[in-house]
């Protein structure tokens, strides 16, 4: 469960960084 949570956190950070680039 912890591993999955870490992966989700990485994905969220990645998506947020992409959104910043789009803006």
**Main beta-sheet strand count, sense and barrel state:** none
Cα Rg: 10 Å
Mean pLDDT: 92
Tell me what portion of residues adopts beta-strand conformation: under 5%
Low-pLDDT regions:
none
DSSP summary: helix tally: 1
Secondary structure class reads: mainly alpha
Instruction: Please estimate the helix content.
Output: over 70%
Distance between the termini: 33 Å
Subcellular location: Nucleus
Keywords: Nucleus
InterPro entries: bHLH_ZIP_TF
Protein name: BHLH domain-containing protein
Task: Give a description of the structure.
It is found in: Nucleus. One of its GO terms (molecular function) is DNA-binding transcription factor activity. By secondary structure, this protein is mainly α. It is built from 1 helix and no strands. The chain has one helix spanning 2-22. The mean pLDDT is 92.
Which secondary structure elements does this structure contain, and how are they paired or packed?
Elements: H1 2-22
Q: Tags for this entry?
A:
23 residues; BHLH domain-containing protein; 91% helix; bHLH_ZIP_TF; mainly alpha; nucleus; rod-shaped
């Amino acid at each position: 469960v912890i591993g999955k949570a870490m992966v989700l956190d990485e994905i969220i950070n990645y998506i947020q960084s992409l959104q910043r680039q789009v803006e």
